[in-house]
Each structure stands twice: as C-alpha cells, then as structure tokens.
C-alpha cells in the first residue's frame, strides 16, 4: 500500500498564506496557495504583481514552498477550495513552478484567472479546471479528487477529498455547516457520512473557532441583524454607509435588498467590491436588485460620490470596502475627507464584519473610527456572523468522517491545540492520531 505524507508549507504558524501538500506514493497534490496580508497591509511600497516570489517569501507574505524541493515525487494538481486571498493569493507567484493544472470551483477559478492576468513578473501557463461541488476529477490512475459542498463566508466553497489506495484525504479549510444559507445549498452531510464509511486516512482541518461552543450562527442571523439595522432608517435623511468583506456576496445581497426596501439606491464602491461582486454577477451566481451599481477605480468611485453629494445622500446606500481600516480603502478615504463625499453629523456607518485579530488591523480600524466620530458619524458594530465552524460543528465533522488521523491547520499553535481537547472526546491522542504541525514540517502517516 502507498504511504501518505502531509507537508505543512504555510498557514500552520499563522492565519493566512495557506498551503498544504499531500504526497501519495510518488504523486503530490497541493492544496491552496494563499497570501498573508499582514506584511503588505498598509505598505504602499508593495506592488505584488511586480514582485518576485522569493522577495514575497522573505517578507512572509506567501508560503515558503522551498520545502517542496526535498519532497520526492511529482506534483499532479493544485487544488483551491474557495476564493479568499489567504487561499488563492499566491497562485500567480508559485503555480508556474509546478507542471500541473489548477483545479477549483467555478467562481474560484474565475478569480484565479483574473489574478494570473494581472501578474507582471511571471508567466503562469498552468491550465485551470473548474470543478463543481459534487463533481469528481481523475488526477491520476491512483488519485481521484472530489468536491463536497460546504458553506463559508464566500460563495462556491467546498471541502476537498482525495480518494487514494490508502484511504481518503479530506481537506476542510475553511468551512461552516450552515443549514440555512442565504445563497447556495446546505452542506452535503449525506456525502460526508458516506465518505466516512469509505474510510478516511487523514482529516486536515481549520481550527479558528474551536473556543466557541455550539454552532456558528447561520448567515440568516446576519441577514436579520442587517435588515433590522437598515430598515430602522427608513425615514432618515442622513447617509447610510455599510462596510463588509467584499467577498461576502450573500451579505452584500442582503444589504442591497434592504436598501431597496427603504427606497434607497444601493451603490458598491471599491476595487475588491467590483472584483468579487462583479464576477459573481457576471457568472449569475448572484442577482442584485435592479439599479444596483458597482464602481471600482478611484476615478469612477469619486464621480459616483459627487453624484451622491449633489442628488442627496438620503437617496442612496453606500456599500464600501475598508472595515479593517486599510489605508487607501473607500471608508478610510471617506473618514479622512479624501473623497467628494463628506461625512456629516448623524450619518450612519455600519460594520457588517469583525476586525481580523491582529495589531495592525486594530490600530488601523481605531484610527478610522476616531476620524468618523470626530465628524459626528454614528457607528454601528456587530452586524456580522462568522464563516468558520464552531466547536460542535467540528465535533459533527469528526463524527461523520471518523478519520484515522487529524492534522489541525490554519492558525498558530495555541489555536490548533483546541483540536487536542476535541480529539479526547473521540479517544484521539496527541502525537499518535492528532498531529500539531508547523510551517516546514513533514509527517508520514503510519500505514
């Protein structure tokens, strides 16, 4: 029987730059090639499309895949489970090193193609292949890839399963088991149970919210929170500005529908808003209310803001980037008075996103809040739910899959350690069935 080895390339010391390789005999499949935003966030000197991968590795922005040089075998595929930058943001910098296709869900594939087209340093000629949730792809004579439907904070997300002679390898990074999603279908629990009965050799799984008991609230909960906050403003003459993750298509659909409900025109502003939502709309993965407009570059966003200021801010609802306080984002520019639209006393700024927990984001967001409050804005927080599973969802996943081994991923040591506690409930033991890895580590699983 072939041996299976897990190589922790990136995302095992931090929340970001995810990349895991799995060797099955002499054949290798890479999961994700992600970006770590901290080293480049707020650094105006970093132009990723013009930078060499070795320089980006040196500053810690992308995975250090030089560990792959010592892994014997041939890379047969690069697999991406969803379209967040911490999972696909390094594809254009690293994929050309491997003579293999990039396989992802249809929406994720389109986002990857856009990144490759914008790349200026490398010629990336890897073929891309779109595989729908529920579909299978024959990677080689011995390995078949399957995508199993899950939910996350971006549309078209899946759990990846490798069917191998030694059992299934399940890559669940990232997911939540949202049974009442706003867009798409509920996770395919029946298929997960069936895969568990087939036999799972190893589960490689995110570990972000293991400290939170119960189940992660459904996106329907966020929908209610957003609707409650926005519809209270029906007769308000002040501006309404909502900031959320540009990739949170379901949330933005809710926001735009609520805008129409109070007879305001929804306007999406920001480069990433245009990229994620324009692509989803083009692919017919979402239908925004009639009259919704999206503007990306600075020239067109400023032109639209001049129109809003002229025609009356009470007629519009602005959905903008910048909830993390990112320099140059729409909300940061508005807070600093660097747009034709001026924040005035009583204007409402709603945050439908949590701060991603790191010191840079906290500092940047605090500065934006300070500037907004100084101008008299009313700030509303907490209109959000996470896209990551809570403890009991992880419990359910392990119950359904019954893996021989578990490799927690996506986070620092203390975060991954939560799986040791969970594993005890199933009789798993640290360093025997549960393996805590760090970037650069390699683990050959016992046969």
UniProtKB/TrEMBL annotation:
Its main location: cytoplasm. Keywords: Cytoplasm, Exonuclease, Hydrolase, Metal-binding, Nuclease, RNA-binding, Zinc. Binds 2 Zn(2+) ions per subunit. It is not clear if Zn(2+) or Mg(2+) is physiologically important. SMART domains: Lactamase_B. Its EC number is 3.1.-.-. Its cofactor is Zn(2+). Zn(2+) 2 binds at residues 86-87, 174, 410. It is an enzyme of class 3 (hydrolase). Belongs to the metallo-beta-lactamase superfamily. RNA-metabolizing metallo-beta-lactamase-like family. Archaeal RNase J subfamily. NCBIfam families: MG423. This is Ribonuclease J.
């Amino acid at each position: 029987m072939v041996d299976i080895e897990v190589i922790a390339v990136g995302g095992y010391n931090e929340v970001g730059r995810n990349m895991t390789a799995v060797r099955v005999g002499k054949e290798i499949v890479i999961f994700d090639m992600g970006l770590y935003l901290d080293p480049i966030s707020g650094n105006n000197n970093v132009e990723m499309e013009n930078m060499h991968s070795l320089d980006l590795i040196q500053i810690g922005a992308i995975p250090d895949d030089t560990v792959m040089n010592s892994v014997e075998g041939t890379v047969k595929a690069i697999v991406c489970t969803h379209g967040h930058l911490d999972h696909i943001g390094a594809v254009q910098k690293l994929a050309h090193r491997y003579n293999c296709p990039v396989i992802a869900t249809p929406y994720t594939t389109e986002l990857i193609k856009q990144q490759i087209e914008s790349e200026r340093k490398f010629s990336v000629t890897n073929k891309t292949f779109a595989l729908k949730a529920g579909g299978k792809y024959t990677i080689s004579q011995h390995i078949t890839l399957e995508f199993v439907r899950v939910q996350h904070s971006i549309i078209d997300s899946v759990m990846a399963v490798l069917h191998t002679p030694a059992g299934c390898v399940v890559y669940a990074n990232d997911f939540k088991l949202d049974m009442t999603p706003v867009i798409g279908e509920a996770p395919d629990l029946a298929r997960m149970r069936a895969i568990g009965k087939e036999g799972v050799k190893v589960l490689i799984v995110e570990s972000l919210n293991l400290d939170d008991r119960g189940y992660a609230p459904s996106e329907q909960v966020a929908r209610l929170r957003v609707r409650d906050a926005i519809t209270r403003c029906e007769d308000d003459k002040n501006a309404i500005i909502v900031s959320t993750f540009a990739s949170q298509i379901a949330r933005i659909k809710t926001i735009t529908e609520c805008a129409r409900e109070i007879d305001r025109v929804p306007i999406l502003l920001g480069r990433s808003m245009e990229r994620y939502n324009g692509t989803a709309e083009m692919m017919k993965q979402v239908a925004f209310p009639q009259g919704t407009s999206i503007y990306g570059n600075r020239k067109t966003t400023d032109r639209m803001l001049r129109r809003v200021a002229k025609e009356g801010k009470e007629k519009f609802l602005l959905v903008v980037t910048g909830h993390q306080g990112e320099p140059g984002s729409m909300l940061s520019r508005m807070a600093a008075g660097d747009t034709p639209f001026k924040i005035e006393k009583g204007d409402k700024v709603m945050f439908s996103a949590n701060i991603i927990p790191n010191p840079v984001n906290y500092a940047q967001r605090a500065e934006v809040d300070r500037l907004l409050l100084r101008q008299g804005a009313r700030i509303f927080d907490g209109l959000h739910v996470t896209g990551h599973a809570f403890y009991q969802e992880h419990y359910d996943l392990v119950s359904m899959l019954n893996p021989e081994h578990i490799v927690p991923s996506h986070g620092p040591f203390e975060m991954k350690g939560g799986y040791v506690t969970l594993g005890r409930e199933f009789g798993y033991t640290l360093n025997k069935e549960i393996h805590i890895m760090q970037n650069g580590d390699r683990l050959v699983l016992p046969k």
